[in-house]
Every structure is written in structure tokens, then in C-alpha cells.
Amino acid sequence: MRDLSPARHPSAQSGKRKSKPISRSGIRGKGGNSDTLACITGGIAEAFYGMPSELQQETLKRLPEEMRAEYALFRQNLERRM
């Protein structure tokens, strides 16, 4: 078995990482992080299909008050334009 202690590991001697850093969740998709792509997709799906009111209310309960106020203002402005 090879000794891969930090002093003997090839990447320790060169000072460079051999692999790309991994995202916090440990999943890296091609062209971007999977969690970012899921958030974008969820936003598009909500705009297209809507959201059940129970899920919307539960989600809003979990947001800080400042974000809830901004969300309400956004929805009011959106409804005025439609």
C-alpha cells in the first residue's frame, strides 16, 4: 500500500489541487451546480403551473419578515401589470 500522507502526496508537493472543488452538497453537474439549476427550474415551473396555496403559505411562513414584505410587494406589482 502506498503512503499518501500529506508530505508524500503528489498534490502536496506541487501545491496545486489535482481535482476540481466540489460544491457544498457534493454534487456537481455539467455546466453548473445542480442546486442552482433546480432553483431556476422550480421558479420557471411555479410561474408556468402555479403553486398550491397550502405549499405557498407554508413556504412564506419560513421566510424572514423582510423577505415576506418584499414578496408581497412583488406580487402586487405583478398583478397591476397583468
Count the DSSP helices: 4
Shape: globular
* Main pleated-sheet profile: none
Count of beta strands? 0
Instruction: List the secondary-structure elements in sequence, H or E.
Output: HHHH
The quaternary state of the protein chains shown equals single chain
- Terminal residue distance: 68 Å
In short:
With 82 residues, the protein is mainly α.
Fold and architecture overview:
By secondary structure, the protein is mostly helical. The longest helix has 17 residues. The termini are far apart. The mean pLDDT is 77.
Characteristic key phrases:
about 80 residues; mainly alpha; 4 helices
Question: Topology of this protein?
Answer:
Elements: H1 10-14, H2 34-49, H3 53-62, H4 65-81
